[in-house]
Amino acid sequence: MNNFGVAAERVVDVVVIGAGQAGLSGAYHLRRAGLEPDRDFVVLDHAPGPGGAWQFRWPSLTYGKVHGMHALPGMELTGADDDRPSSEVIGGYFARYESTFGLRVHRPVDVTAVREGAGGRLLVESSEGTYATRALINATGTWDRPFWPRYPGQESFLGRQLHTADYPGPAWFAGRRVVVVGGGASGTQHLMEIAEVAAETYWVTRRPPVFRDGPFDADRGRAAVAMVEERVRRGLPPQSVVSVTGLPLTDAVRRARETGVLDRLPMFDRITPGGVAWDDGRTVGADVILWATGFRPAVAHLAPLELREVGGGIRVEGTRAVRDARVHLVGYGPSASTIGANRAGRAAVREIGRLLDGTDPAAEADGALAPAAV
Question: CA triplet 297, 302, 304: central angle to 5 degrees?
Answer without folding.
Answer: 145
